[in-house]
Amino acid sequence: MLMMIKVTILCVFAYLLGSLSSAVIVSKIFNLPDPRQHGSKNPGTTNILRLCGKKYAFMVLLGDFLKGLLPVLIGKMLVISPIYLGIIGLLAILGHIFPVFFQFKGGKGVATSAGVLLALSLPIGLMVIFTWLLVAILFRYSSLAAIIASISAPVYGFFMGRQYFMILLVMSLIILSKHYVNIKKLIQGTESKIGKSPK
């Protein structure tokens, strides 16, 4: 019973923490353009990078990353089982994508997912982040990097830690669903590269 109370509290905490949009908060604190109204209109790191520059993009990246990392790490400290850790991480991601504090209109969950992955399994998290960086460096498309990295997560999970495979598969499908517009643009050749304004 006590364990389920801990899990429930952490699930609520993870979702509420995930619902704090780093991009919107940073833009308001520093009187920057609202990322929901400018650029790609996505409140995430890439749009802030295009609109406001590297310094503010790093702040958003760090904030979104920590939203995924902290709830899962706390869960590990409380010796919560892997399946519940995965659910806690998933709720942090869903909070980012559907934030209760911002009319349920959030980002795509990439940075938050990275935080969750590193907290769940350091080797898997590092492999997924390396995959993102490699694709981003080679092709200069943030969306393509996110798509390939999200697909790689359950693959790495299958070979490196099967206890998280199902939750990684669900996370991957959620990230892919949030990138369906980007997938269409990549196919059409109209997707913007990193550092360039959306077409």
Structure report:
By secondary structure, the protein is an all-alpha fold. The chain has one domain (2-188). It is built from ten helices and no strands. α1 (2-18) runs antiparallel to α4 (54-77), α5 packs antiparallel against α6 and α6 packs antiparallel against α7. It is globular. The relative contact order is 0.13.
Number of domains: 1
Supply Rg: 16 Å
Tell me the number of helical segments per DSSP (H or I, 4 or more residues long).
10
Mean pLDDT: 94
Roughly what fraction of the amino acids lie in strands? under 5%
Overall outline? globular
Order of helices and strands: HHHHHHHHHH
Distance between the termini: 53 Å
Class from secondary-structure proportions: mainly alpha
Q: Which percent range fits the helix content?
A: over 70%
Features of the shown structure:
199 residues, mainly alpha, single chain, 72% helix, 10 helices
Please outline what is shown here.
The protein is mainly α and 199 residues long. It contains ten helices and no strands.
Write the layout of secondary structure elements.
Elements: H1 2-18, H2 22-29, H3 45-52, H4 54-77, H5 82-97, H6 110-120, H7 122-139, H8 142-160, H9 165-178, H10 180-188
Helix pairs in contact: 1-4, 1-5, 2-4, 3-4, 4-5, 4-6, 5-6, 5-9, 6-7, 7-8, 8-9
